Amino acid sequence: AQVAEWKAEGLTIGLTPTMGALHEGHMSLMERAVKECDRVVTSVFVNPIQFGPNEDYDNYPRDLEHDAAIAESKGVNVVFHPEPEEMYPKNYNTYVVMETLTDTLCGAKRPGHFRGVCTVVNKLFNIVQPDKAFFGQKDAQQLAIIMRMVKDLNFDIEIVGCPIIREADGLAKSSRNTYLSEDERQAALVLSRSLKIGKQLVEDGEKSAKAIKDAITAEINKEPLARIDYVDVVDFETITPVDEIKGTTLVAIAVYIGKTRLIDNFIA
Ligand code: AMP
């Protein structure tokens, strides 16, 4: 009803989809949306169908009061916080599946994850009917997939990719950083540190994906608390592996620090 009212007034609508436990990364999306759209909806929904059976759905941090206060302070007009039973009622049976873009990186490591993401984002697009939707480059494969989906399924929505927001020491902001112990928090710096080494190589003219992957891998392997899930170099648009840096190339990593799986990347 609120969306219909805004549409009748000819107002533009921005959407920032999130899973809550909002931090400065989410805030940057909200700020951008408030700047570029007349009205902004932030969704806060821990989407059960994008979590694997052994993942952290139950433990994922939830704090609606905190999230609502942050959204309000950023000028967001509506926080959309549905219950899982509202989004997936009994007999729910329709899913959106993307093909090759989900075969690598997080798609390969988290079977079914992007089916859950594409499905929920479709539903959010239909519910909120935004003119623009804002996604972080922090989840670069997700951003590429949503851009592809919007083209493939003819959504009249502009997808805006926003830069990665980091802590002062380089760690990419993430709701999952709250899982880290003090030692792990320190060890987690290996993600941004290794990517910085990779980025420097690219800036110095290195074109070989293998050389970049090897340098990043070597740095991560120096950290005893870290265990590599993947280190990959892919074309940003197709998310397929490349041997050489050319065009828009994504260098992406996923690393377990203790039990916590963190991701980070840069675009070359
Ligand atoms: P999440 O709540 O983790 O599903 O993230 C919701 C949105 O915020 C996604 O588009 C993320 O890419 C984005 N996001 C999360 N962390 C960051 C960050 N550190 N910098 C920029 N965007 C982020």
Task: Give a quick set of tags describing it.
268 residues; alpha/beta; 5-stranded parallel sheet; 3-stranded antiparallel sheet; 10 helices; 8 strands; 38% helix; binds adenosine monophosphate
What does this structure look like?
By secondary structure, the chain is α/β, with parallel strands linked by helices. 38% of the residues lie in helices and 19% in strands. The chain has ten helices and eight strands. A five-stranded parallel beta sheet has the order 3-2-1-4-5, sandwiched between helices. Strands 6-7-8 form a three-stranded antiparallel beta sheet. Helix 9 runs antiparallel to helix 10 (209-221). The structure holds adenosine monophosphate. Adenosine monophosphate (AMP) is lined by residues 18-19, 25-26, 28-29, 135-136, 138-139, 162, 164-165, 172-175.
Low-confidence segments, given as residue ranges, are none
Number of helices: 10
Backbone shape: globular
Going by helix content, strand content and strand pairing, the class is alpha/beta
Quaternary state of the chains: single chain
Distance between the termini: 43 Å
Mean pLDDT: 98
Strand and helix map with partners:
Layout: H1 2-8, E1 13-18, H2 24-36, E2 39-44, H3 64-73, E3 78-80, H4 84-87, H5 105-109, H6 113-128, E4 132-136, H7 140-152, E5 158-162, H8 182-187, H9 189-203, H10 209-221, E6 226-235, E7 249-257, E8 260-267
Parallel strand pairs: 1-2, 1-4, 2-3, 4-5
Antiparallel strand pairs: 6-7, 7-8
Helix pairs in contact: 6-7, 9-10
The structure holds adenosine monophosphate (AMP).
